[in-house]
Structures are given as structure tokens and as C-alpha cells.
Fold this protein.
Amino acid sequence: MNGQGDGTVTTSTRRGFATLAVGAASLLATWPTAARWDDTVRYPDPAFEILDPSFARYRLDAGGVERLWTGARWSEGPVWMADQRCLIWSDIPNDRTLRWHETTGMVDESRKPAGYPNGHTRDRQGRLLTCEHGGRRVTRLEPDGNTTVIADRYDGKRLNSPNDIVCKSDGSIWFTDPPFGILGNYEGDAAPQDLPTDTKSL
């Protein structure tokens, strides 16, 4: 699933990280321009183009590209909440987290303000993990609704702006920390970069 730069949420993958990004980019690389949001007329959906044959086994031939909603300024970080039957994703410049409900097809704001959120994932206990540009931190949403800060510093220095995140099978949390959220005031707050850009783990 993916959030496009025009605020559209689709069932594709764009900017991932680590090994997830490599597979996703190869599998979902090119979109037809003329009928981009038309209903799928045949299967496998021609909107999916496989550039590397080794990823052919990951395509669901009975699946199609479907537009769920449009209206965000810039969507990122979708995560599927199967137990709640909803999709959560970020609208970074509008400082909010949005939620699409499978049962109704409706979209509402699940958090606003939300710390200019970017990437989301779930940990091994099903809790929502969020990369926040505004707070320059990684947070965890607890079952009672409270927020726990997982990381906001490394070697005594503030994180830049955590961006993409994944929870490994052993429970460790991996995230990227580029400077995008501190380069200006569009998707966070302008600030000096304290750390080199790299991937960090908890």
C-alpha cells in the first residue's frame, strides 16, 4: 500500500526502506498514465509491472489497484490494522494521521496534531509505532491511548526526523533517520542536523 504525493492512498508501495523497499520497487514500479484510476478490467491487473522476474511469485494475480481516498496534501506511511479493519496513514504537512474504515469506506482523522508523522508499523504486540518529524522521535501508541517515546536521541544527540520503520521478527525496531523533517517548516520544524543520516535500531 502506498500514499502518493498527490494525497492519494493506493494499494501499492513506493518509498520503503531496507530490504522491503528493494522488493517493492521491483514489483510495483510503473503505472499506466491514461487509465490510472480506472477499475480493473482484467487480471492480472496491468497496472502492476514486474521488472525483476524473481519477484513474480509475490504478485497476487487476483488483486487489483484500487483508489481508497484522495484529499491529503502529502500521504505517507500506511499501515493495515487488521483487527480494527482500518488503514492508518500520515498526511505529513497537515500534521495529522488519517484512518480509512473498511466497513464503511469512510475516512476520518485519528490524530491531529500528530507530530508531523511519517512512517508507521506495528510491533510484535500489535501496537502502533510512529516516526514523528515534529518531535524528532519514534513513539508507540499504547492500548490505553497513551503515547510512549521509544527513541528521540542517539549518543546524546537528537534524532533528525525518523522516516521509515519496521519491527523485525525478534522484536527489534529498525528505522531510518534522514533530515527531511528539519530542512524546513513544511513537514516539521527547521533545525540543525545533529546526527549523520543512517539507519538505527532499538
